[in-house]
Amino acid sequence: MRSIKALMLLTIAFTVIAFSSCKKDNNEDTLATSTITVDIDGTPTVFTTNTVALKGELNGKEITSVQGTDKTGNTVSLTINGSVIAGKTYLSNATEIENKSNFLFTTANDVDIYSNDDASVQSITVTSVSANRIEGTFTGIVNTSLFGNGAIKVKSFTNGKFKVAIISK
After folding, report:
1. Residue 27 and residue 24: Cα distance in Å, rounded?
2. What is the residue range of the signal peptide feature (predicted)?
3. pTM for the whole structure
4. What is the spatial distance between Cα 60 and Cα 62, in angstroms, rounded to a whole number?
5. Alpha-carbon span 99 to 147, nearest angstrom
6. Non-local CB neighbours of 17 within 8 Å, separated by 6+ positions
7. How far apart are CA 122 and CA 116, in angstroms?
């Protein structure tokens, strides 16, 4: 499990590097319509700021991170390890690292950092993928067991959907 947590931290680092080194594309129309929607503990939440899928490699393996920020500054990052295939579901408890999903949710100002809840299964299903866009659904539970302030906090993600532009590195 520590390797999963380490992979999540590497995903954050990958995200920072990717955003700081991205060049402007002709994907502006696609980027402008990129959204992530999800009910967090039953509350509908929309992520439209810096909402994008970043595609690259980590230790020679393909990794795709779908991420965005909501209007209050909360961020979500959904990571798919391995090749992205339309119609495939990636699970946090997959035995092969290439089929794993990882969730990361950070509250505004990094007050609390939530990651995969080891007691439940987080899933990401890719419904459509092209060279410049990915769409899918997701669901799962995250908690602050490793990170955060004070007592363990839990958040439930239901009805999650994403339609975002892909930026390849």
Report:
1. 8
2. 1-18
3. 0.80
4. 7
5. 24
6. none
7. 7
